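Hey, can you fold this?
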Amino acid sequence: MKKSTLALAVATGILTQHVSAAGFIEDSKASISSRTLYFESDQRDAGGIDQRQTVTGLKFDFLSGFTQGTVGFGLDLQGVQGFTLGGGTSPHGPATTNTVSPLDTDGTPVGTWGRVGANAKIKYSKTQLTAGNALSPNLPILVANDGRLVPTAFQGAILTSNEIDNVTLTAGELNRVIGRASSNWSAIAAGGRKGSDSFRFVGADWKVTKDLTLQYYHSQLEDYYRQNFFGLLHVFQIAPNQTFKTDLRYFNSKSDGKNGSDVNYQYKNGYNAGGLGKVDNDTWSAAFIYTLGGNVFTLGHQRVSDSGGMAYVNNANVVDGRGRNEGEGGASIYLYTDLTINSFARAGENTTFGMYSYDFAGLGVPGLKPSIYYASGRDVRGTGNATTGRYDEWERGVRLDYTLQSGPFKNLNFSLRRANFRTDLPETIVKDQDQTRFYINYTYALW
């Protein structure tokens, strides 16, 4: 039995003796969320591939409080169900990949898919252990993706402690993942053909002052890579409605276990100096955010080392007994350049990015927030000509969000996103890609 499954069983067994205790129900929350997504991806130069698909889904969340006593027990439940309303990928076939929904054997989207999950939680003082298969970590070394219809979920255990003033300590181990467009669990991987049995991590966020936060995290994706992350966040209050924020991030990633020697554990992210997808990477970024009233201006720069691309969890190439990719891929990265289509994280990539957003609340239209961005990546190392090949790519995008502020459908949210991506990398099949997404989100609190 997996360690996380054992922990969940033990905690759930203890919990049944305390469910009537005050706090478990009184402090609980339950909600039903709906999301409808229209997803259009035009890969104009990739053999005429064109995806236009509409899906809708429901997500139920129950978050209990904790039983009373020195040690408190709780239980979180989650269920998601997705429905295909129409469309798909054209042309399609057995080798089709779809990042929105699972596929039948002929490459067409399935009609429905879903999953259920649960997390048991134990709390002592200011320390909490959560174990189960509905975990959604949001950490510098691992961000659960929620860019399509339903969020990615992980199985394992996460420990969070705030026993030290102004310090949050986090540690955990994950061993399985279920993708954003899948109803099947798989091992955790980083683009290789085989998955890993373990993703371990430990880290700390130290709020040195009210304006300065320092971060350090260490993670290990067994048989793929070990990674150290250092972060600095500083906010300078210029005036009551004016701030200047500095956000510095640095990742150092090195090979682990079978990576670099076994073809099944290759890390695939463009050029690789070590051969067999051996991980050897440094990535740093600096972003400066100026806020004035409803205006937010962001300007930054990011650099990926020449030896290999940025290392991160991505199950895109894992193939199991079904013999095909079924939505396991789709990763988020803790980088400002993790944009709508591209992440600008290839070997040698030197990226300058800018973003602007405006909150219309100051003009009497609360809930309306448009934004734009542009990123230019240069000096990307190509695998076809490793010694001299350097290539460029860019992405631009616009986004418009509006949330109803009152009435029977208060908090109903609409989000329209449009992005264009271009690259001249010779080994990249899709060099021109245009993407449109339209989301309708609503959450109803049951209690």
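Oh, and this one too while you're at it.
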Amino acid sequence: MTLRFIGTTSENGNCPTLYEIVETGEILVQGDRETDPGHLAQLRDVKPSETFVRIPRELLTRFVPGLVSPAVDAATKE
């Protein structure tokens, strides 16, 4: 599968970073793994294959609006 770099808020090329999996449109998030036991205990419906990462809100607010495809965006304006 092919990854498309969306963006990052890091200065030196480290995490956090967002990617799109081109073939599926899913978003891949790179960030620091959540290790706080209190936070992990509050998560629901966690599959053994899942993990959780922390990312700053700025990363989403900067790049997520651009993730809407033109077809979806046009359909919501009708």
